[in-house]
Each structure stands twice: as structure tokens, then as C-alpha cells.
């Protein structure tokens, strides 16, 4: 098929040419005296993206999933109780990981399409007068349903309950794309990955830990080796890593951070909002609905519900095989019910107009009754009216 594949999934995302070029490097000695000139500024600039001055950033040659494990096993003890609200595939997977690692996992089920219920979490924390809950696991942006939760509100709930639990946040599909404020929100462990807003290939787990979490790491008895924070702390203080790093990824991260900081984080967040809003205008014009309920809509991915009797997998298949467009599939409880348009990372207005046009053709070919051009027209009007 002529032309390139158009990638509109919520990760991995498109890698900018500047980042690809930066990654095209010969191998070098990662124990040389000049290597700290690469690593140390990376760790400092990651703190800017996490918005922390008091915390410490880390880079693991791994994934966001490994980042979940880093947070749990470095700060808690075997059998500790953790609290999580399950409202999508990724909050589900984090809970399942905690179970498999031997923690006492208290799971509360929520409707897929909503986020963390702040009133319920505050009430539950107030009930825990013995402070048996040692950590709250919060998924900031649930890509399976296109839902964003209020992490600042979770911190307020912890404070209202005067509860000392650690607050860990899965920001894999939000950090570097959606407003995130580690210090202001009192986040103790922030977890992200390279393949979303950082616009890199998969293979990098980027994390930041508060001083409270780092102190907890000093007394944690959980067995660990490759994912041990202490090894990172000891090596990073001199500008090195405890094992062989992924050098191309580090050089790509240098360029990615330069691009993000040059654009300005507030501008990055505003751009993602505009792109998402254009997609939402298109969905409304088609007469379809989002999986996310009002107030929870994500700015990095929109999950779109197909009409009753239709299969979202058909839309995705036609989009890929006939129009060379990759869309996100529905996962687990929403499999076949939704398809997803990712609008995260290296995207602009015209990128999303291409996605919307391709989706319109796939919807029509799937027998879904929409007016041709309606979504494109709605998005065009919004983007034109809000362009600077």
C-alpha cells in the first residue's frame, strides 16, 4: 500500500524526526568520564516534566509496567495493604500485579467510563483509623476508556482523612501530555514510560519519588535486584547507571526533553487539549458517544462507543486494512464495544483531521450511520476558531 501507516493509537506514539536522528548514534563507553554530562542533566530535566523540586527522578531500561513494580517493591513490605480503584484495563493490571507480588490488595470496582471517586476514597481512608493501608495506587489517565482522574483531589482526600499512606500515580499516558504536578499534589511515586508523551520508542521507565518514598525505601524488606532504587541512587549520584543503559534511548530522551521544554509544558498541555477537543467535536457530530463520562474525558485518547449491534473490531480492521490507519482497540470489558483514537505526543491539527477522515470512512464502510464529512467539518471549525 502506497504511503505510510498513520499511527493513531495511544502508544507507542509517533517519534519526531529530530528524536529519531538523535538516537542514531555509535555506541560509547558508559563508564567514561564524560557520560555523566549526558545522564545528570537528563535526570534534572525529568524533574521539570514531573514538576518536582524536592523529589528525585530515575531512568530504568524497562517499561511503565516495570515502573509499577519499582514503586511497590522498593517502598512497601511483603503483605502490606494497598488500595486501588479499578475502572479500566490498566488499573486492573496494576491491581493484579500487586496481588501477584504478595501484597494485600483492596480493590473497589467502579464503572468503566468514570475515574477515581473522590468521595468514596476519602470515606474509605477515614474508616482506616489503624492506617493499615500503606499505599494508594491511582491511575491518572486510563487509556482503555479515555478517562482522566483528579490526582489533586486524591491528595485532598488523603489530607482530609489525615492518612499517611503513600500516593503512587500511574502517569504513563499523562505525564508530558496532561497537566501533572508532583510536588503540589503530594505524589510520592510518579510513574511514566518513554512511548507516550515523551515521543520515544518503548523501553524506558521514567519515575520520580518523593523524599517520603525514598525514606520508605530505606526500610523496605521486599526482595528485589534489577529494579532496586538503592542501586540507582548510589550510581546516579556520580552520574552513572548501575548497569548498561540504553544509550540510543538516552540520546533520544535528551532531544525529546529539549522539544518539550522549548515548547513549554503549559503549551504542551494546551495543545493536547485542543487536539482532543477537536476529536470530541467530531464524535458528537457523528452522533456517537464517548466511553468516558462527562468530566472525565482524557486529552490523550478518546474511546468511542459503537452503536448497539455493531463491532468496534470491524471499524479497526477496515481502518487498518483499507485505509492504512492504526486505531486503538477496546480492551477487556469494552472489547468490541469501543475503538480509540490516540492524540498524544507529536501531533497537530492536520494530523488529527487525517485521523478523523479515515475513521469516518471506516465507520461508513462498517455500516454505521453517520453523515459523511460531519466529523471532519466539526473539527475543522473548532481548530480554525482556536488556532493561534
Explain the overall architecture:
The chain has about 400 residues and is an alpha/beta fold. The chain has 2 domains: about 130 residues, Alpha-Beta Complex (Aspartate Aminotransferase, domain 1), CATH 3.90.1150.10; about 250 residues, Type I PLP-dependent aspartate aminotransferase-like (Major domain) (Aspartate Aminotransferase, domain 2), CATH 3.40.640. Strands 2-10-9-8-5-3-4 form a 7-stranded mixed sheet, sandwiched between helices. It has a 5-stranded mixed sheet with strand order 1-13-14-12-11. Helix 9 crosses helix 10. The longest helix has 22 residues. The radius of gyration is 21 Å and the shape is globular.
Short summary of the structure?
By secondary structure, the chain is of the alpha/beta class. It contains 13 helices and 14 strands. It is globular.
Strand order of the largest sheet: 2-10-9-8-5-3-4
Q: Return the average pLDDT rounded to an integer.
A: 97
Binned strand content: 15-25%
Summarize the main sheet. 7 strands, mixed
Classify the secondary structure makeup into a structural class: alpha/beta
> What is the N-to-C succession of helices and strands?
EHHEHEHEHEEEHEEEHHHHEEHEEHH
Using the alpha-carbon principal axes, give the shape.
Answer: globular
CATH architecture of the largest domain: 3-Layer(aba) Sandwich
User: Low-confidence parts lasting 5 or more residues at pLDDT below 50?
Assistant: none
Radius of gyration: 21 Å
The named CATH superfamily of the largest domain: Type I PLP-dependent aspartate aminotransferase-like (Major domain)
Number of domains: 2
Q: What's the number of helices?
A: 13
- Highest-level CATH class of the largest domain: Alpha Beta
CATH topology annotation of the largest domain? Aspartate Aminotransferase, domain 2
Helix coverage percent: 40-55%
Amino acid at each position: 500500500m502506497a504511503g505510510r501507516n498513520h499511527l493513531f493509537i495511544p502508544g507507542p506514539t509517533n517519534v519526531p524526526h529530530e528524536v529519531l536522528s538523535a538516537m542514531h548514534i555509535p555506541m560509547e563507553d558508559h563508564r567514561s568520564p564524560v557520560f555523566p554530562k549526558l545522564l545528570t542533566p537528563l535526570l534534572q530535566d525529568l524533574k521539570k516534566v514531573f514538576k518536582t523540586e524536592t523529589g528525585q527522578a530515575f531512568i530504568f531500561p524497562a517499561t511503565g509496567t516495570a515502573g509499577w513494580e519499582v514503586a511497590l517493591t522498593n517502598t512497601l513490605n511483603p503483605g502490606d495493604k494497598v488500595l486501588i480503584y479499578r475502572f479500566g484495563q490498566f488499573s486492573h493490571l496494576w491491581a493484579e500485579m500487586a496481588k501477584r507480588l504478595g501484597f494485600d490488595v483492596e480493590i473497589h470496582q467502579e464503572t468503566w467510563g468514570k475515574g477515581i471517586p473522590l468521595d468514596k476514597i476519602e470515606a474509605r481512608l477515614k474508616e482506616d483509623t489503624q492506617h493499615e493501608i500503606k499505599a494508594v495506587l491511582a491511575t491518572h489517565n486510563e487509556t482503555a476508556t479515555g478517562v482522566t482522574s483528579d490526582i489533586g483531589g486524591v491528595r485532598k482526600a488523603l489530607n482530609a482523612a489525615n492518612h499517611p499512606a503513600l500516593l503512587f500515580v500511574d502517569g504513563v499516558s499523562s505525564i508530558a501530555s496532561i497537566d501533572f504536578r508532583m510536588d503540589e499534589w503530594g505524589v510520592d511515586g510518579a510513574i511514566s514510560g518513554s512511548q507516550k508523551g515523551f515521543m520515544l520508542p518503548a523501553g524506558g521507565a521514567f519515575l520520580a519519588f518523593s523524599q517520603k518514598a525514598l525514606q520508605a525505601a530505606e526500610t523496605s524488606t521486599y526482595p528485589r535486584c534489577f529494579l532496586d532504587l538503592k542501586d540507582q541512587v548510589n550510581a546516579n549520584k556520580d552520574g552513572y547507571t548501575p548497569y548498561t543503559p540504553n544509550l540510543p534511548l538516552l540520546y533520544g530522551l535528551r532531544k525529546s526533553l529539549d522539544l518539550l521544554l522549548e515548547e513549554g509544558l503549559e503549551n504542551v498541555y494546551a495543545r493536547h487539549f485542543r487536539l482532543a477537543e477537536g476529536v470530541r467535536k467530531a464524535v458528537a457530530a457523528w452522533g456517537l458517544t464517548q466511553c468516558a463520562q462527562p468530566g472525565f474525558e482524557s486529552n490523550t485518547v478518546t474511546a468511542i462507543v459503537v452503536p448497539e449491534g455493531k463491532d468496534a473490531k470491524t471499524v479497526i480492521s477496515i481502518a487498518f486494512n483499507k485505509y492504512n490507519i492504526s486505531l486503538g482497540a477496546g480492551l477487556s470489558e469494552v472489547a468490541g464495544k469501543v475503538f480509540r483514537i490516540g492524540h498524544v505526543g507529536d501531533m497537530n491539527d492536520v494530523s488529527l483531521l487525517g485521523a478523523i477522515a479515515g475513521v469516518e470512512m471506516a465507520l461508513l464502510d462498517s455500516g454505521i450511520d453517520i453523515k459523511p464529512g460531519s466529523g471532519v467539518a466539526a473539527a475543522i471549525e473548532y481548530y480554525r476558531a482556536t488556532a493561534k
